[in-house]
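Archive entry: two folds, one per protein. Generate the first.
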Amino acid sequence: MTGQSIRVVIADDEPLIRAGIRMILTSDPSIEVVAEASNGREAVELVRAHGVDVVLLDIQMPVLDGLSALAELRVAVPNARVIVLTTFGERENVLRALEQGGAGFLLKDTAPAELIQAVRAAAAGDAYLSPAATRHVVDQLTLGKAAVRGEGARQRVAALSERERDVLALLGEGLSNADAGRRLHMSEATVKTYVSRILAKLGCENRVQAALLARDAGL
C-alpha cells in the first residue's frame, strides 16, 4: 500500500451509520471511500466493479446478509480484504466471519482510531479482531484442547523474556495495545514493539494466534 490510498467500500443498510464510518475513515488521508452499499448484494457488485482493498460489511442487511456477502466476495474478489463490522458480537458470528476468510471483526462501538487501525491492518494483509472478538475466538478454540497443546505452547513461550510473556498474557485476555500499556505502565508504542517481537519469536501471523498460544500455555 506504500504511496497509494487504501480504497474502501462501506456496506450497511443504515445511511447514518455509513455516513459516520465514512467521516471517520476519510479523516485519515491514506484512506479513500470509493463506494457505499445498502445491502449485501449491492456490496458484492460494487466491490467487483471497483478495485478496492478493504470492504467493511455489516452483518444484518437486506437482500443478502453480510456473512453471505463475505462468502461470495472471497470467491469473486479474493484480493479484497473484508472486515465484518456489526452490533452483533455473538461468538457464532465471529467464528463464521473468520472461517469464511474475513480479515477482521469489529463491533460498532469500536473507537474511531481502532476502526482506522483495523482498515490499515487489513490492507497490509494482517488480521484484526477487536478485544471482545478475540476473547470469543480464544474461548471457543481452546475449549477442551488446551491440555493437548499445552506442552508445545509452553516450550514455545519459554523462548520469550519475562516482559514479553507479560505482554503475551494480556494478548490472551484480548487487551488492545493501549490497554496492555496501561496495565504494564508502558506506552502504547512500546507494547506494539513488544507484540511485533513476540509474533516473530513465536512464529505467529497475528495477535489472534498469539492469544491462542498464550491460553494454551496457561498464561
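Generate the second and append.
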Amino acid sequence: MALPTVDITSIAPEPAGAVLPPSRRRRLRFVANGKVIAGLAILGFFVLLAVIGPVIAPYDPSARSNDLVAGPSGAHWLGTTHLGQDILSQMLVGARSVLFVGLLAGVIATVLAVVIGVTSGYFTGVLGELLSVLSNVILVIPVLLLVIMIGTIMEEANDLTIALVLGATTWPWSARVLRAQTLSLRRRDFAEAARAVGEPSWRIIGFELLPNLTAVIAARFVDTVIFAVLAEIALAFIGISGVSEWNWGTILFWAQSQQALAQGAWWWFVPAGLAIALLGTGLALLNFGIDEFVNPRLRNVSVGQVGFTPVVPEKS
C-alpha cells in the first residue's frame, strides 16, 4: 500500500478569527511564564500570611512560658526562645511588618520614579534638567544610615515611618532607568505622530509612553520591594528601635544575641532564615519573568507563539 503524499501547504496559517491580537498574546505569554507563576504564588502566600498571620497565631508572640529553648513539639511547632516565647507565633505576626514595609516602600518609590523619571525624560528643557539633578542629589544619600538615624532620634518612629523614608529615598535608580527609556521612546514615530496631530503632552505620556514602560516599571517595583524587605529585616537585626516589636529580623536578633547556634537551637533561626530566602526567591523569580517578557532575547519562542499551528495528516 502506497504511503499518502503530504502537501507542504498542509502547514497553513490558522483562520484570522483564531489568531489572538498581539497585545493579548503578550499578556498570555507573560502569565504563562513559569517563573512569573512561581513568583506570584510565593508572593501571594506571604501576602496571605501577612493578612491572617496575627489571627491564626496560636500564642501571643511576647507571652512567656516555662518551656525555655525547647525544640519543636505539639505545643510549640517551631520551638521556643530563651523566655519560652512561641517562635511560630513570632513568625506569623512578623510577616505583616516585613510585607507592609516592603510593599508600601515599593509603591511610594515607584510612583515617585515614574513621575520624576518620565517627566524629566519627556521634557528635556530646564524642567527635565532640574529633575535629573534632583535624582542625582537623592541618589548619593546613604539610605540605611538615614533610616538608622531617624529610628534612633525619633521616639515614635514605626514601620510606617521606615516605609516612608525608604520609599522617599530609593526612587532615583528607577527614575534614571525610566528617564533613559523615555528619552528613547519620545523620538519614536508614534510619539512624533501624536505631537504632529496636536496631542497634549499629558495624553502622549499617559497613553503613548507609559504603556510601553509598564514592564520596566514592574521590574523596578519588584527591585525596590526586595531592597525594602531586606532593609527592614537588617534594621531589626541590628536592634533599631523604630522597627515593629516582631518581625523576622527581630527573631534573628534575639537568636544571635542569645547564641542560639552555640546552644544547638536551630529552630530559633532556621525558620526565619528560610522565610527570608523563600520570599527573596519569589520576588527574584517574578523579576526574572518580567526581564524575559521585556527582553525578547531571553525568551524561547515556540511554534505556537508565532501565529500558526502545524497540521499533522492522519494515518490511513
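Annotation attached to the second fold: The longest helix spans residues 201-237. The radius of gyration is 26 Å.
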